[in-house]
Recover the amino acids of this structure.
């Protein structure tokens, strides 16, 4: 901050002492638009975070599937039963999903969803600066109103002070109203533009999610033909749970499981 800027900031901070309620400028229309703008800003900033989180989540899911598939394939690698074949096919399937679906979604997702959100977010700094400037000019205007009011109530011996202060007040009023009216005119336009701006990104997001879901379902459905069709029925009627419990009991019956307590 420059020295001049620092002095102005200090002066505005001190204005709160001389400014009374009668001097304050109230504009409910601007307050309403500022509230709507702050809500838009908050939602857009959250959208930037969540859109990045969604892409990160896709990558994590794909990476986790690959690691699980690799472990399962290694787990059954020394067997000749159907589980070994299922493990290899599952690994090939998730590798295909990672290479042909997830990785190929990165670029279109970044271009159509993430980048538009980031570009929209960049405008907020300029708008925040304009609102901050309005606040400063409002403070200057109110301080000059207070100054003129005091000179009117208690005239100075220097008769030139009041006309000079009134001239300053008029200029300050014009500057404030110019910024204030511009913001009241343009903030609603900005808020309304969010709909046509984000709509293409929303459509792209749905299409990308649809592609990921459909292609994942299609690929993984192919794995089902190698899985015992009786497995699902056994899960439903409780047979699978009983079989697993029986295997656990057999494991507990092994002498090697008792060595740890010796």
């Amino acid at each position: 901050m420059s020295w001049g800027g620092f002095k102005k900031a200090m002066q505005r901070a001190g204005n709160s002492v001389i400014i009374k309620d009668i001097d304050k400028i109230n504009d409910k229309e601007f307050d309403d638009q500022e509230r709507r703008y702050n809500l838009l800003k908050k939602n857009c900033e959250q959208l930037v975070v969540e859109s990045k989180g969604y892409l990160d989540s896709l990558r994590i899911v794909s990476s986790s599937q690959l690691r699980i598939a690799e472990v399962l394939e290694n787990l059954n690698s020394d067997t000749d039963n159907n589980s070994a074949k299922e493990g290899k096919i599952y690994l090939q399937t998730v590798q295909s999903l990672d290479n042909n679906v997830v990785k190929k979604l990165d670029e279109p997702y970044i271009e159509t969803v993430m980048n538009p959100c980031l570009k929209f977010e960049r405008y907020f700094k300029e708008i925040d600066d304009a609102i901050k400037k309005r606040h400063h000019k409002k403070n200057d205007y109110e301080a000059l109103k207070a100054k003129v009011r005091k000179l009117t109530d208690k005239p100075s011996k220097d008769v030139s002070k009041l006309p000079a202060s009134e001239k300053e007040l008029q200029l300050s009023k014009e500057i404030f109203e110019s910024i204030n009216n511009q913001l009241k005119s343009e903030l609603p336009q900005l808020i309304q533009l969010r709909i046509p701006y984000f709509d293409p990104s929303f459509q792209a997001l749905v299409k990308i999610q649809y592609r990921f879901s459909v292609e994942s379902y299609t690929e993984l459905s192919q794995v089902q033909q190698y899985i015992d069709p009786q497995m699902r029925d056994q899960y439903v009627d409780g047979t699978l749970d009983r079989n697993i419990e029986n295997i656990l009991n057999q494991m507990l019956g092994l002498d090697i499981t008792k060595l740890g307590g010796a």
User: Anything to note?
Assistant: The two ends are 74 Å apart (CA to CA). The helical segments are 3-18, 28-75, 82-153, 161-224, 230-237, 239-252. The chain is about 85% helix and 0% strand. The chain has a mean pLDDT of 86.
